[in-house]
């Protein structure tokens, strides 16, 4: 009989505040931050988690987050596998999934009306998505490196106020893209080609932000050009570079314009100068982010703030001066020039000429923000959005969210700008912090209490205690660098290493010593707890507290890496730096066995519940199983692709767990030496492991600062099925890698000119295992329907050929496939439509790329069931009909008939409505 095991599955992740894989968003009350593969929603004032967006079965980390400007409850989230999910923040559910990139998403940007979404990837591709229609529009090729910024542009008339009216914004006709390949490109979205391409920086370009033109209340354009208002573009790069550009709106609306001499065309994007940042040592640091923010504060105060992330320690905030400030600045300039002109008539003539105010004159430093750790991203609340902020709810001061690399989030308040106060003297106030629910540094150890209700986790600087049921942090204690730890009997104390009888513990370290300690009760002065105690003299008031005393020391030849008592309290195992494990009798400390065979030091070890097996793991990527009776090596297993960090036996069995630097958690059978199950979910090295005393779950900690609980289910697991799943995953991975390689080669051939001209736009398609399976299901449904229709057609022919009509009526119809009976004897046409409807709309086009026959075009009855689905199928067939290599055998007549039936069905539905 085939041996079966129990399947383990992952649950929710805890111990995270914010990871550094993506940008964060802020709406004034809630912070939307990446948490590895999830998105957490934090109430920053209370420091509580109010939501979590988790896609079941998806373990790729979040790489970009963007919020819809027209529907604030709708968010776009990009992932490392190239997928984009549209989330509803109200229900925490996925609205739609877009698959079109083969590399990680690096940037997301919504259109102004929220109907289109642009996604940029690390391979330089930009895809345009129709969010309402749940389909890909086109893909733009022009960059050959990571996309770092996207901005939609509209060539319509500028608005009068940045806090904006409630009218629908005009549709965006152009888009800016910037990449690490140093290029800044202007795209025409209607013709899907590049209008202009310029080298923005000498080094990698990291961001682009736009300040649109605004008409002042006096009807004048502050940019000094009423006929052609311009956008202000700000780009950032390496070496502290910040460049200012202007973009002509006339070129966006009217197209290319000739120069005055008629010899060429005007450039749409013009460089007007560089901005010198005030951060100390800004030159040489990367300016990794820039954001122009239109803010509206309480009391009707509004303006434009422009923030730059300089390096990873500071955010420099600038602002655009108001009209009154510009006039005062110009008056002061005239006054200074007039004073100088008294000395020279030549200077007097120069002073009489009024100099125009430039964009650089309008830029004014505001404040310098510094976080308590390295800054990964920053975000302003959209105070100008009336859907999120009513006039009374707007803050009195501008706030900014800082997401830090040490797993924390801070909200800072920026004081209002003052013309009489120098910007260096302004200081931001730290309003809120979210720090308690996670460690600041990598987790090095986890251990479970004796009742499996509490979990202790340690890192450099802190020890935290968690309630496993609620996954809440209930205690945080400052400490040194915690490398290992365990609970003492009673679940009230935690220390490093314990002794099996609960009377003491043993420690080992780099001093080449193994030291033994005993617990003792120590009397300490106690505070009075009631009135009776207060009458006792303070010298006589004593309380017993737990203390320790050193009992003996055993010298070793090398540094001690680990110690372990056997469960029967008979042996003591010591691993040393010479890659061996020595076994001693615990009572006499006499040498018993030496386990040698690892090529690198043993990082961890454990002894089975019956004290018969010892399992060791090492940095040589191997796990060895030893017999404790004779010290022989039962089996040496190549367990992980990287160093094996921890190993632990499951209680009551010879099954054991291992974790490694390859981010995997593996389950093993110590008797049959087989890998039972491999669990993936961590995104960095897995450094710690703890198995529950009842063997129902295990807890792992990682350098990604997350803690994961893996629970044993009642679902059986068979090794053959598990091996088949692993082979299928490997096959899919190899297939995807091969497809990526072919795509890269094809692109290089096009760029070299061997495959003709390089097309800047193409269709958004991506074949995945899911879309291929969906296509196969559609083909299978069509084949079943065709067989069913043919059987009944032959049945009708046989009936018509019979001379005796009475016998023909008694003739039994052919037996149908049981699948149709399972669906309440559904018709063949309706069954095909039901299968098509189950395919997600964004993946339907990729699924239909499977070779279909013209049978699909002959299902007229399907039109009456789902007009939308059939209309899409009809459009798809017509599109592919133009490509002869796909549908050479399709007759145009049934396609025309379906088009007519769709129109009539839509008219009937209009009448019903």
From TrEMBL:
One function term, GO molecular function aspect: snoRNA binding
Q: What is this protein called?
A: Uncharacterized protein
One Pfam family it belongs to? Beta-prop_WDR3_2nd
Is Protein transport set as a keyword in this record?
A: no
| Keyword tags | Coiled coil, Nucleus, Repeat, WD repeat
What ranges does the record list as Basic and acidic residues composition bias?
Answer: 338-351
Output the InterPro entries linked to this UniProt entry.
Answer: Quinoprotein_ADH-like_sf, TBC1_cilium_biogenesis, WD40/YVTN_repeat-like_dom_sf, WD40_repeat_CS, WD40_repeat_dom_sf, WD40_rpt
Lineage at the top is: Eukaryota, Fungi, Dikarya, Basidiomycota, Pucciniomycotina
List, alphabetically, the SMART domains matched. WD40
